[in-house]
Amino acid sequence: MTILAYGTPAGDQPLDRMEITRREVGAHDVRIEIIYCGICHSDLHQARGEWAGTLYPCVPGHEIVGRVAEVGAHVTSHKVGDLVGVGCIVDSCQHCAECADGLENFCDGMVGTYNGPSADAPGHTLGGYSQSVVVHDRYVLKITHPEDQLAAVAPLLCAGITTYSPLRHWGAGPGKKVGVVGIGGLGHMGLKLAHAMGAHVVAFTTSESKREDALKLGADEVVVSRNADEMAAHAKSFDFILNTVAAPHDLDAFLALLKRDGTMTLVGAPATPHPSPNAFNLIMKRRAIAGSMIGGIPETQEMLDFCAQHGITSDIEMIRPDEIEDAYARMLKGEVKYRFVMDIGQMAG
Ligand code: NAP
Ligand code: ZN
Fold it and tell me: Would you say residue 349 has pLDDT above 90?
């Protein structure tokens, strides 16, 4: 099937409308008519070739929500008309220890929703800035939020799970002091989720203008991280810090805020490395730096259900597909409040 998409033929070219094809629905496949797709900073990194290995043409988008239009003969978990989501994963080997544990995100054969290996044309996966997608049913998530919240649910498929998974893994909850660094798409979800899990939440932002917002989003306290006195007031006090910043920066400033045995987990994936942290900042209090990548399919469903129960969605600004380059420019300035979502219904113009 030929459909419309927004993508780019090269890293130095703007995204523009193009035609792509989707495979016929196989026995285990679900075809989804995409209604909205969230805009992740990873889309920008990948489309512009900031990370090694972008395959062109590149059609980004891994925060997909839409309606099931067709199912294969062996699909029992989804039916035509259902509201569903697809996140960052559309396939995995399905037989390794990671897949058995529902941690497909760590499977060596994990196939990303875009830029992953594929038997379909053009030989790699193409993402959700497009009118439809065909996905194996194992990787299709159920959406239980009210339908009128659908656009604001889209960002949960990446920003939501990427913050939910480490918050759960490192035990955010009552009695824990949790920091969230960088209040963009991921960070604002981190504030909402850590708050709903019952932690004491501190937002770290470089943007004075986000101070008030962060309190509304779920922070108990806000620190403007450029202010050394505000930072010093939190020295040696955090159990866990989730760092979502998309650019290289001084990690030591945040490590010094962890208490004994505290962990700072990086989810931000800048194009160039952070300056190396000072080993003494780790040694002195047995602190750790860790990383985390999205989350597995069962945990993504758990996160969606948790959000539906707690009335959590993303704060979004809707854009037309032809506004994508402006959206990227504003994302780079840290101006998004707090996630752009593309209205796929306007793809045809
Ligand atoms: P985003 O919406 O652009 O937010 C990033 C935030 O980081 C900005 O809003 C800003 O917050 C802060 N920031 C940006 N540049 C900065 C700088 N030079 N110094 C200090 N702070 C800066 O991006 P996102 O979509 O949340 O993604 C964040 C990062 O996570 C990206 O690198 C993305 O590729 C990565 N990511 C990783 C995973 C994973 O699985 N690990 C999944 C999705 C995305 P303030 O204005 O509050 O300072
Ligand atoms: Zn993403």
Answer: no
